Amino acid sequence: MSDLNIRTRKPYPSDLTDAQWEAMRDLVPAPPPGPQETVHDRREIVNAILYQLRTGCQWRYLPHDFPPWKTVSDYFYRWQKDGTWLRIHDTLRGRVRRRAGRAEAPSLGILDSQSTKTTEAGGPKGFDKGKLVKGRKRHLVVDVLGLLLVVFVTSAGVQDRDTVPRAMREAKAASPRLVKMLGDGAYHGEVVANASAETGVEFEVRKRPEEIKGFQPIPLRWIVERSLAWTGRNRRLSKDYERTVASEETWIRVSFLHLMVRRLALPAGEVPRRMSSYVTTEPRKAA
Fold it and tell me: Average pLDDT in the 131-141 region?
């Protein structure tokens, strides 16, 4: 199947440019063979999903110049179920890291969580007593570039330290090179030590110095906080609107996917605007 090349509508700000589409085109699967002729361009399906992510509108409210909303949502959930989104995301992460002069798989991970409110949709919910938020909690492990390595969603009532075993196992599976993980003071105790011994991944807690008041970026640890802030630029992720945690995890991956194709589409040697002030304080070999 060849993509339809005719563009008959005015572009939206969330649309992929030609360069961005070329950065991921080979990863987007063609529709399964069947008796009916393919009607909708793969690029337009992806554009509609990115519009949804960026604006947070309901599926039925997608503009009519996109493919039908039911078609778009069917593709989103089909690619979620068959692992397409995960495969595209992980492949793009390796490409971005190579372009930055790093190995495809990181050796350092940075862990943090974010509690978010939910709606009346179903799924697990709880109360985060520390943040006073009723809903769910997003757990992210990122590399030194701020790119997503692991994401999973739990009830907001789950203690951060209790998620370390899962975070370490999934991060180690995603990156066999992983040797170290950083986190804040919430990640402590025997459960963290046991997970570190099981996976062979060292866990380092980095706290803000007690004598410092107010906000203070902690070397390297701030990177995951910035990554969480990046997701907040998408209205679909301003709350957890999903019935299932799997869908919420997928939307987070799609948000990073969009970020990565934008980086890959930049001219060679150009530094992303949001990365221009990035300076690592750790040895290069630990990244």
Answer: 96
